[in-house]
Amino acid sequence: MSPDRRADPALVIRRAEASDAPTLGLMHAEVFLELYFGVLPESTLAQLSPEAMAALWHRFVSRGERYVQWVAELGGDPVGFVGTGPGREIGYEAGTELYFLVVAPGVRRRGIARALLRQADPDYLWVWEENRAARTFYRKQKFFPDSVARDGSLFGAPLREVRMSR
Length: 166
Description:
The chain is an alpha+beta fold. The protein has helices at residues 21-36, 42-46, 50-60, 112-120, 132-140, and strands spanning 11-15, 68-74, 77-86, 96-103, 124-128, 144-154, 157-165. It has a domain at 11-125: Gcn5-related N-acetyltransferase (GNAT) (Aminopeptidase), CATH 3.40.630.30. The protein contains 5 helices and 7 strands. It has a 7-stranded mixed sheet, with helices on both faces. It starts with 10 loop residues before the first strand and ends with a strand.
């Protein structure tokens, strides 16, 4: 992939490693709590601890070569990450699904999410129906709703999602 010309010139994107799990788990937990506070039940939010998310990251980086995670760094500090893998829906198994894309609040709107998405190069994604900012961002990146929605879940809490494809 060629670099995103609008991204911060100090941005480095590299593959995630097992040693990143504690740092990425903390960032993942913080961003999920920011996004889902007041939306998901407190019992669900309690499951999103940095330790629990770090454990998930250990699993993410050891799942096999079709599962790929990238980390964005500024000045050597992780500021975002993205993960993809094989499609999980019937008929989409050969495609690449975006599983998550996260950028730390203090560095948003600097081209980091765009650069991570470009590096990951997914075919489609699922996004929380109520996350208008994310849906707008993905539309600008040429992902469009394809008239499919589902009642998904996050740590057991129901969450309505829409699929967006290129």
